[in-house]
Amino acid sequence: MKVSIDMGSTQNGGPATLNLEELLATRLLVQGNSGSGKSHLLRRLVEQSASWVQQAILDPEGDFVTLAEKFGHVVVDASAHSEGALQRIAARVREHRVSVVVNLEGLDVELQMRHAAAFLGGLFDADRDFWYPMLVVVDEAQMFAPAAAGEVSDEARKVSLGAMTNLMCRGRKRGLAGVIATQRLAKLAKNVAAEASNFLMGRTFLDIDMARAADLLGMERRQAEMFRDLERGHFIALGPALSRRPLPLRIGSVETTGRTGSPKLTPLPSTAPEDARDLILAPGEPEPLVRPSVRKPMPPPPQNMDILFQLAQSRPVLSAPPEEVEEQGPEVDREPLLDDILRKILEDQEAAFRSVAVLYQDFLVRCRIHKVPGAPLDLAAFKRRLSAARAGVRNETADGPEWEQATVLAAGLPEDIQGVFLLIARAAIEKAPCPSDAELARAVGSRSNGRARRLLSYMDQRGFVVTRNDRGGNRIIALPGLGWETAPGDPNAADDPAAPQGGDLFDVA
Predict the structure, then answer these.
(1) What strands, in cross-sheet order, belong to the sheet with 466-469?
(2) Which keywords annotate this record (predicted)?
(3) Which of 52, 107, 269, 372 could potentially form a cystine with 111 if both were Cys, beta carbons 3.0 to 4.6 Å apart?
(4) Which candidate, 19, 22, 77, places its Cα nearest to that of 506?
């Protein structure tokens, strides 16, 4: 079934239509300077397609929340939820096929990037059974996929750019169609912009942006000047869902309005100059008296001869005096301290879903607070210790030769998969039931059971594990390289049996 969306009118007065099914397969990039009508275009597209396809809108300015009353979108206030909660919300959005507006207003830029990345990650990691077609609209995309480093941390930029790249590069097979809008193409990461096959280019003034817009539309450089002459709401369209040749069009009207419209001139209030002066210069509450601090005069700088005398008198201390060595206490065993710090970090339920880099920084800070002696662990040693902790290894198991064999064999896998293999190995050593999909997903910091199954297939293809089912449908995983296997276990069991099941769609408590 072909569904055509009315976007407005062409230069000749005919209808400007957009093939929705083609858009879902080829994605869309909208570019235009501030005031060119990008938000109006996105609103028109969302309103016209609301009854045909599920939608998710990342709204950094809270401008699209007005869609809720007219079209039934659920508004998710990102400032009221953690990153892990947004991932769970995104999974439920895909499962129940609910259109949402993620309102990022009220967060600073770095938190907006982190929360947007968490939500996009939840959409991307949804189970294969819920890969329904979905339109993902991202306004001000240059904020979430910047071309260069800015004032935010490198980690926030990395996770946000990775989520946007997944959306535009790998989202199609998962039913996700990215629609991104940006003020400047030069500020948008090229690997994100290059994945769009449909373009709507609005008014642009800078030469570098006009040149990139002309290149994307297949126009000659001398034709790029036309982008300066476009009026508000006028765009040049190109792409399989729009037109095979550059087509000027004008975006039609919308049914809803944003909370922040264009500034309009209003007459100034008629206030007498005397009254205006009283309003502006009215005395406020008396401020507390602050006594100025008295600085002591700085001593005069030493003369050159004094400095030379001090250097001549100084002697480097090569070793501690014998009496000091005798007074030092016994050497502290730091291994229990490191294990205790790591255990406290992992007691937080959200720790399993944080990146290794964040956990490593937290670990180093706690080591300094507790004054752990010796050089700090490097990242590689921390990853090995973290994998063992996530696998839930007991002390007696970790001290045995079997666990050492398992860690040696796990070294042949990528670092992000080693935790899954060690979790299976621990269950095999202790003759425990086979871990469920939820437990395996948690070991790699994911809430997607589908990802756990894909990792098992990956290890099965490379001969690290062999999976089979018993007569009751329970799963048994064998480790051919070690000659062990787990006890039967339910692959569909919940990660936390005490956790409530079902409930409200957005109940993330």
Answers:
(1) 466-469, 475-479, 484-485
(2) ATP-binding, Nucleotide-binding
(3) 107
(4) 77
The per-residue b/e assignment along 243-261, b for 16 or more CB within 10 angstroms, e otherwise, is beebbebbbbebeeebeee
pLDDT at 160: 93
Digit-coded pLDDT (tens) for 374-385:
787 787 777 777
Q: How many whole angstroms separate alpha carbon 32 and alpha carbon 181?
A: 8
The sign one gets for the Cα dihedral 63, 68, 73, 79 is positive
3-state secondary structure of 246: strand
Q: How far apart are CA 390 and CA 394, in angstroms?
A: 11
Q: Tokens 């001593």 sit at which residue?
A: 299
What residue type is 472 in one-letter code? G
Is the pLDDT score of 279 beyond 80?
A: no
Beta-carbon neighbour count of residue 62 at 10 Å? Answer: 17
Cα distances from 200 to residues 4, 20, 219, 322, in angstroms, run 17, 15, 14, 79
Residue with tokens 């919308």: 254
Contact (CB, 8 A) for 65 and 40: no
Residue recorded with tokens 């869309």: 28
| Triad 122, 114, 84: Cα angle to 5° | 45
- Kindly provide the residue ranges of all beta strands, DSSP E only, lying in 139-207, ordered along the sequence: 176-182, 198-201
CB 113 within 8 A of CB 152: yes
Helix, strand, or coil (residue 61): coil
Cβ contact 157:118 at 8 Å: no
Cα separation values, 336 from 164, 197, 347, Å: 41, 56, 16
Per-residue pLDDT at 497: 41
